[in-house]
Amino acid sequence: MREYYCYKFHTRPSIFNPILHDGRLFQQFVVDTYIKIESSRLDYIWHNQKKIRAELYQGLLDSIQAGEQDGDAVRKRRVLASSFIGGPRDKLCRYLDAMALVRKYGKPDVFLTMTSNPNWEEITHELETGKTPQDRPDIVVRVFRAKLQEMKKQLFEKAILGKVQAYTYVV
Predict the structure, then answer these.
(1) Which residues are in the Helitron helicase-like domain (predicted)?
(2) I need a labelling partner for 37 at 20 to 30 A (CA). Which of 69, 96, 138, 156 fits?
(3) d(CA 89, CA 83)
């Protein structure tokens, strides 16, 4: 489903796409689409708990740690897999990974923040006449992602701040 909407949101020079020309309505459509995709993912998890529980034996331990004392409540509990981005297990895994890096390499030397500028030339160049960056958040995100990839290349491959032993980042 996600791939379908990525295809729908892409600009094509020879095909008029009314979705991309609706300003705030486009933004609402993007939010609704995101909710639809997340709901689909959650629905899959909800209806496939037996498969997930077979793989995630940790569920019983989680129930005990959460203070569940009733055996029926443990059985009825729903588990979000760590593969569900943004879920509690995902966040815990990412935190533990970051703490493992700190344990092995010590405290971080650099804390770097990168922000997006809607007036970047790459964004304004791609906008149609009369459109603002707020009308096309997809372009802003694509440009930000490209600049982030370039910054990572500068930091990790070209080592502009010195050799990097380990890193973690959040967008």
Answers:
(1) 4-171
(2) 96
(3) 8
Cβ proximity of 137 and 30 under 8 Å:
yes
State pTM to two decimals.
0.72
Distance (Å, rounded) from C-alpha 43 to C-alpha 49? 10
When pLDDT is cut at 50, 70 and 90, the band that residue 73 belongs to is low
Give Rg (Cα) of the chain. Answer: 22
Residue 59 pLDDT greater than 60, yes or no: no
Question: Where do runs of H (alpha helix) occur along the chain?
Answer: 2-8, 24-47, 49-55, 58-65, 71-76, 88-105, 121-126, 137-152
Q: How far apart are the first and last CA of the chain?
A: 23
